[in-house]
Amino acid sequence: MKNKDQDLKSKLCDAYFSILNNSNSNSIKLEDLCLKSKVSYDEAKKIIPENSFNNHVFFLQTLITKLDNETLEELKKDISDDTISSTYDKILEGLTLRFENFLEYKPAFKIISEKLESRVENFFALLQQNYSFMFNLLDLVENKQNCILKTIKSTALNSLFIKTVEIFLKDENNNLDATVRYLDKYLRDIEDVGVIVGIVKR
Q1: N or C: less crowded end of the chain, CB within 10 Å?
Q2: pTM of the full predicted structure?
Q3: Cα Rg for the chain, rounded, in angstroms?
Q4: Share of residues in the chain with pLDDT > 90 (%)
């Protein structure tokens, strides 16, 4: 039953962002969502929390969780036999991969982040997920890292990521050139601070 519910949730989420990506409005009728996802109205009502249909946070959290799992799995494969790249390079690769997976949904993200209150809502809704992603990313690239230091670094990376999201959403080009350029700059900035305070070693 749990797997079935998860499958229905995934179908509804995919349909929600597919509709958003091809529209200029975040107003989506449940009937349209059911038609697109091929999920019955009654099943959809059971999956989507009450009062959440007009609140994009439910779908956003579902999608980000899925994309983050895919990103970490992809990174794990990419660096499994990598003995040459530095920790910095691996972190940059992981963050870049995350944005690459976001790129397909950029039109939808722009729609649901159009208003300031929506961006603030998204920030708080995804705060724990962003922190968890950074923590798991550091788990992959840094073996046996002190938990306190990992927490500090995860918080710093989360802050960096939020700044870069603004660049990502404002960039009108359908590529990541500007995003990765700023990502690299911001990452170097926090690395320099980390070296100065002794939590990062070069």
Answers
A1: N
A2: 0.87
A3: 18
A4: 37
